[in-house]
Amino acid sequence: MVVCGDDGLAHRLAAELRGVYGEQVTLVVPPTERAARGPVVGRARAASAALLDRMVNAAVGGRPGVTGGPPTAGATTPAGGSGGEALLEAGELTEAVLAEAGVGRATALALVHDDDETNIRAALTARRLNPRLRLVLRLYNRRLGQHIEELLDQAAALAYDGGDGAGAEASTTVLSDADTAAPALAATALAGTSKVVQTEGLLLRAVERPLPADSGLHTLALLSVNDPTGSAGGDQEPRLLPSDEEVRGAAGRTVIVLEQVSTAGGPESAAGGAGVVPWLNSLFSRRLRWSLAGLVGCVLALAIALWTVTGIHPVRALYLTLLDMFAIDDPALGAPLGRQLLQLLSALVGLLLLPVLLAAVLEVLGTFRTATSLRRPPRGLGGHVVLLGLGKIGTRVLTRLRELNVPVVCVESDPEARGLATARRLRVPVVLGDVTQEGVLESAKISRAQALLAVTSSDTTNLEAVLYARTVRPELRVVLRLYDDDFATAVYRTLRAAYPHALTRSRSVTHLAAPAFAGAMLGRQVLGAVAVERQVLLFAAVDVDGHPMLEGRTVGQAFRPGAWRVLALAGRSDTPADHVLAKGDRVVVAVTRRGLATLR
Predict the structure, then answer these.
(1) Residues 6+ positions from 258 with CB-CB distance below 8 Å
(2) What stretch of H or E contains 135?
């Protein structure tokens, strides 16, 4: 396996492949990356530090199977694993560098640079060097990624056109760390305990529930227990995919269960109501709708008052009230009904002409307004999510929240941020300003928000914003994006201890994204990930054909505690536990990282 990157995702991915799957990995990084890069995940940092000895030993002893450049850094074989890791430093991913990294004989190559163009250039070169290569690219531009996938797959097919089919192993997968992490971040901000993963035709939703939970639901995880008194046996770590015996013996603990497996796009997943209400919402603002309702109420009140005072027929009282409102000097009293209706319609058309003319004038004036104008948070706004940062991650999270019809107020310090165009298109209120400055969070109505989601690129900014927001509202639900896993764990534990009654979640984007990239390199389709405290539970699609641990077994028999659980056949939500998995079936499984390695 070859991994090329310039940030923490590359190191996390290399550590994932080496430590979890036991793969031999070559890591290609820029020459100044180790000195210039920010903090990385603890395991990846330890792995990078351990590279020195291995490269030195490889250079001196000439051990086979280790590729690398000059012995400026090295790698050591991980304890308990068969895989290894080598480090190669290169300023650019040229053909010579990729050849030196062993791309010509590698099984898979991951290009996870932060720059899309760098990854595309290297992918085109790598496909020419090795048409059999399994390529995994990190691209933010999803539309471009689809075209690149088709282009590189076609190149691999043409390279072996008419041959022995050796190019069948080649594949190209385009992923985005932002797309992988955004659903988990958005779900955490909404309910804190809700995890949503969209799989092949299914919508899987997981929630936390206290035991005992419904026995008909799949138990995905047992959450940890913070027990300083020792009455429950001391602190207990979270347990992924526990057995039924473990669940029955875990009295007092909270579990994550699969609450719903339904077809995506069904009635349960539809956002908003039905009928005429969404149509009215799209045409008229809430203030205008209330104004119209008040006007109708006034008309009815006046008509009732006229009926009470004069004793005339109620319909005639309403008619005279409308005539008075329309200021018609010559009412058609005693005239035929058609004449009276035409008179009312003519008066109404005359009234409608005034706002049409006014709207035309305002539209002409609006052409002189700046195109960068952003909405301000409206008065009385409450129950919304305050989103800090509109970079790559923030933009994807914003889109996800609006798909769920969640009110959002964004805070961004950079007036040229890429997410501002998305916020303007979605008509989301934005506060421009430094979140660390006094009054910025207040402008975003933080005192009436339901959650704060801090996803800026600065750990200190995210932490400072969360700490200040907690002084304003101690019970506020907060979700932090933190780059360093060790730092994230320390912050999570400290905030949980300081605010025991408030929900706190810290998330690392690389921690959420790396399993999907690793699964793609191994030829497994990882459909999504659910964060369980500081661990990750994966959802993957697996072909049953020829798999000894799945084929010929029932869904219940295929369950292995702590490793994987078959949830359903792909595209079906009504798979019974006694269904026998047969050739041609494709199943959606909840799987741990090591479980995915075993399934492979």
Answers:
(1) 204, 205, 206, 217, 218, 219, 220, 567, 590
(2) strand 134-138
Can you point out the beta strands (E) in 43-133? 85-89, 108-111
433, 440 contact by CB (below 8 A) = yes
Continuous H helices in 221-313: 244-248, 276-283, 286-310
- In 3D space, the residue among 379, 414, 419, 365 whose CA is nearest the CA of residue 395 turns out to be 419
The reply to whether the predicted model has a pTM over 0.70 is no
- Give the tens place of pLDDT for each residue, 384-442: 999 999 988 899 899 988 887 889 999 999 988 889 999 988 889 999 999 888 889 99
436 near 413, Cβ under 8 Å? no
Estimate the crossing angle of helix 177-191 against helix 509-521, to 10 degrees. 130
3 state DSSP class of 467: helix
**What's phi and psi for 80, nearest 5 deg?**
75, 10
Which H/E stretch holds residue 240? strand 239-240
Residue-wise pLDDT for 526-564, tens only, equals 776 677 776 778 888 888 887 888 888 998 889 999 999
Torsions phi, psi of 540, nearest 5?
-135, 155
Q: Helix H segments across 473-508?
A: 485-498
Residue indicated by tokens 């990750």: 536
Measured CA to CA, the distance from residue 479 to residue 189 in angstroms comes to 6
* Phi, psi (deg, nearest 5) at residue 407: -65, 135
* Rounded-to-10 torsion of CA 574, 579, 580, 584: -10
Q: Is 12 within 8 Å of 41 (Cβ atoms)?
A: yes
Rg (alpha carbons) of the chain, rounded to whole number:
30
Please give the Cα distance from 183 to 169 (Å, whole number). Answer: 30
Rounded to 5 degrees, φ, ψ at 289 are -65, -40
Model pLDDT for residues 152-204, shown as the tens digit of each residue:
888 888 876 644 444 446 788 898 888 878 877 877 776 554 456 655 555 56
Burial category of 15 from C-beta neighbours within 10 Å (exposed 0-12, middle 13-18, buried 19 and up): buried
Burial of 165 (0-12, 13-18, 19+ CB in 10 A): exposed
For residue 496, pLDDT over 50 is answered with yes
Provide the pairing of β-strand 564-569 with 25-29.
Answer: unpaired
Any residues with CB less than 8 A from the CB of 209 and at least 6 apart, and which?
A: 254, 255, 256, 257
The pLDDT tens digits for 259-269 are 654 433 333 33
